[in-house]
Specification:
The protein contains 10 helices and no strands. It is mainly α.
Length: 278
């Protein structure tokens, strides 16, 4: 397509025609058919004898839930793939401003390439980071990164990765192909968590007490912390994660509708009108 960027919506709808359809971000068939197909394949994979191959990714999604919440409050955290995320309790300016720098780089790259969604994501993340670091009480921060956001990450991180399927990131991310892999892994983790917590909500499974490393008797497990340190009841926990699942489904449906109906072209048109000129 060269350096020309269409400012007419009809031309904008054809902006990816020189790209292979599977790597294009404005191919209607890909946007409409691929996400439901990948969700179906992930569901079948979860029910197959080879589902154990995905368990490591599911555990890591949980640990990244803890880690991302900690990072957004300016704490150092290392998500390890065997069920443990050490988090330093003290604020780290290196973590805070390092993340802020990354958000700034994402914003500038999106601005230079006239891609509005990376800019929106960068601003939103910077806003969440500011709120969680400077406006949220320390006890509340610790509840989020130390207890709730492990399982919470299984929901919201996997949802964000699936939503990111539609987002055209700057070229250096090579997101055109990688998004398929990340969507499949995220869908597998999301569907597994949705099923498990639906069983808990309806009383067919017990709350997962304890921790992966030290077993059910570990009082330092996420559910133990929510009940013992933050006075959550079992009913509170069941409802919180069940409804978090509902919200995640709603968010995915909303974004799916936007891109299938091609309402996203309006943002691209605004970016083309008011972005930097070549």
């Amino acid at each position: 397509m060269g350096n020309e960027f269409p400012t007419d919506l009809k031309e904008l709808a054809k902006a990816d025609e020189t790209t292979h359809p599977l790597f294009a971000f404005d191919n209607w068939r890909v946007n409409a058919l691929v996400p439901p197909l990948l969700l179906s394949l992930a569901a079948m994979a979860n029910d197959s004898p080879l589902s154990f191959l995905l368990d490591g990714f599911h555990v890591w999604m949980h640990e990244f839930g803890h880690a991302t919440a900690a990072w957004m409050t300016g704490r150092k955290a290392t998500p390890l793939p065997f069920g443990w995320t050490p988090i330093e309790p003290d604020y780290s300016a290196f973590v805070y401003f390092g993340l802020l720098l990354m958000f700034g780089i994402l914003f500038v790259a999106g601005f230079k390439e006239r891609k509005p969604w990376p800019m929106v994501i960068a601003v939103a993340l910077a806003g969440v980071q500011y709120y969680m670091t400077w406006r949220m009480l320390p006890d509340r921060q610790e509840m989020w990164y130390g207890a709730f956001c492990g399982v919470g990450g299984e929901f919201y991180l996997s949802t964000l990765l699936m939503i990111a399927f539609y987002v055209q990131l700057p070229e250096k991310f090579r997101w055109g192909f990688c998004r398929y892999v990340f969507f499949f892994i995220a869908a597998s983790a999301f569907l597994k968590s949705i099923h498990f917590w639906n069983e808990i909500y309806h009383g067919r499974e017990d709350l997962p007490m304890g921790s992966m490393i030290n077993g059910e008797d570990d009082n330092n497990g996420d559910m133990n912390k929510l009940m013992d340190a933050y006075d959550w009841t079992k009913s509170d926990i069941r409802h919180a994660y069940q409804y978090l699942g509902y919200y995640c489904w709603a968010a995915m449906g909303f974004v799916y509708a936007i891109f299938v109906l091609r309402l996203n072209l309006l943002a691209d048109w605004v970016s083309a009108k008011f972005g930097p000129k070549e």
